[in-house]
Every structure is written in C-alpha cells, then in structure tokens.
UniProtKB/TrEMBL annotation:
The organism of origin for this protein: Paenibacillus cisolokensis
Protein's name in the database: Nucleoside diphosphate kinase
Coarse class of the protein's main subcellular location: cytoplasm
Database matches in PANTHER family: NUCLEOSIDE DIPHOSPHATE KINASE
Cofactors: Mg(2+)
Keyword Zinc-finger in record: no
Record's catalysed reaction(s): a ribonucleoside 5'-diphosphate + ATP = a ribonucleoside 5'-triphosphate + ADP; a 2'-deoxyribonucleoside 5'-diphosphate + ATP = a 2'-deoxyribonucleoside 5'-triphosphate + ADP
Length: 134
C-alpha cells in the first residue's frame, strides 16, 4: 500500500472541479485518507516547490499556488503515486491525453488544475508539509 499527495490548485478550486476530481480518483479505486480546504502560505509554497527554485517560472508558480483556496488530499492504494499521475495526465494540458484531468479540463501549463507527487519519497515529504507527519 502506498500514499500520494494530490492538490486541486486554485484554478481548479475556483472552477468548482473538486467533486469531479475526487470522483475520478475514487472510480479508479484509490481511497481518500485526508482532505481539506486551505490557503497555501508563501513559505509552504516555496518549500513544496523547492525543486523548482532556480526555474524561470518559480515566482509565478508561487504567486499562483498562493492566490486562492486549494483542496489538499492524501490518496492510498497500490502504486498510488503512479496511478494518481496517470489520472492527472502530462504537465502541459496541451500534451495531456483526453480522459486525464489535465487533458479534459486544462489548456495551458501555468493553470493545470491539479498537482500530484512525482515519487513515493516526494509524496511522504509533501504529506508531511501539508498534513504533518501523522
Ligand atoms: P505538479 O508538480 O504540479 O504535479 O506538476 P508536474 O509534476 O507535472 O510538473 P513539474 O515539473 O513538477 O512542475 C510543477 C508545476 O510548475 C508549473 N510549470 N510551469 N511555465 C512552465 O514552463 C512550467 N513548467 C512547469 C506547472 O504548473 C507544473 O504543474
Ligand atoms: Mg511535480
């Protein structure tokens, strides 16, 4: 059994996509373990995205993720990280297949609706950041 961290980003929250997104993970068979509405502080955003600190888009990414409420979740199941990433789709919605969340609901990379951890190690780190180490 594995855990992953998933977050509906401010664009997805504002558009009322939280229920649709939860439903897609549930239909796949993953199990919701934690979920909460929150606003991400700049400090948390910078820690969450620390791997991207040197990228040209880092400032805009932090501005965006702190711009409004998000819905943070922990999902559990076999290969939870990989299964969640395949439900979410490729980073740029223009490359994401129809049937994925980004393929169905996104247009541009800056507003790609949802985040999913990229490895079991990242998942545990991100769950710790957003939900504490329980
Ligand atoms: P995420 O972390 O949000 O689940 O997305 P990801 O793994 O598919 O993509 P990652 O490389 O980790 O990038 C994190 C987020 O940064 C924004 N981004 N913008 N302007 C750009 O070229 C660019 N590249 C990435 C996206 O919002 C991406 O989700
Ligand atoms: Mg990532």
């Amino acid at each position: 059994m594995e855990r992953t961290f998933v977050m509906v980003k401010p664009d997805g929250f504002k558009r009322g996509l939280v229920g649709e997104i939860i439903s897609r993970f549930e239909r796949k068979g993953l199990v919701l373990a934690e979920g909460k509405v929150m606003t991400v502080s700049r400090e948390l955003a910078e820690r969450h995205y620390s791997e991207h600190r040197e990228k040209p888009f880092f400032g805009e990414l932090v501005d965006f993720i702190t711009s409004g409420p998000v819905f943070a979740m922990v999902w559990e199941g076999p290969d939870a990280v990989k299964n969640a990433r395949s439900i979410i789709g490729k980073t740029n919605p223009a490359d994401a297949a129809p049937g994925t969340i980004r393929g169905d609901f996104g247009l541009v990379v800056d507003y790609n609706v949802v985040h999913g951890s990229d490895s079991p190690e990242s998942a545990e780190r991100e769950i710790g950041l957003f939900f504490g180490n329980n």
